[in-house]
Amino acid sequence: MTETTRSIKRCAICAHPAASQCSGCGKTFYCSKEHQKDAWTKHKRLCKIYQRQAQGEDVPADSFCGLCGKTDGPLMKTQCCNRTICDDYEKYRMFTYSHASCARNHDRYTRCCFHYNERHGGDQFTCEKCEEGPSAEMVAWYEVNNFNFQADIERANPPDFPPSNCVKCGRLMKLGAESHAYTPTGGYICDECSGH
Q1: Which part of the chain is the MYND-type domain (predicted)?
Q2: pLDDT under 50: residue ranges of the chain
Q3: 173 pairs with which residues across the strands?
């Protein structure tokens, strides 16, 4: 990875290069209005907290969920990085692939928790084992998606990746943000072409 990789801002939903920045907090980036709209429900509370912090207000990190900004409701500490998050595993319903649970999303879809669960040791951001993945796009997504804590997103240095296209219809795919199937040869098939 080059230093220029770090200067490329990544979408919080799909990890693709992002041209739009949240106008409220300036910390979160999006590749499209659609992804900004998709993220707003969870980001709006965090956005307000980041704005308060930028104005010098001390907002203790253990007083809100670091993924969605909730202050009410049960909170817990993550096992991987000991940060505050919603204690909301019960929101997830089996086989729905819902992203309603902050705790489950962080546990399943971040490099932070993967590094911890695999017991790689050392720093997740320099871990060579964590760089190995099904594709550079997914490695990048696990580093910078909105299931990560902001401090980790800011430290991340995701790899560049070539665009992924459906091998059947040729449509550009955003692997971390949409359903897809893998082909035996290592390609991808979009949900529409796979018949789901």
Answers
A1: 11-47
A2: 1-5
A3: 164
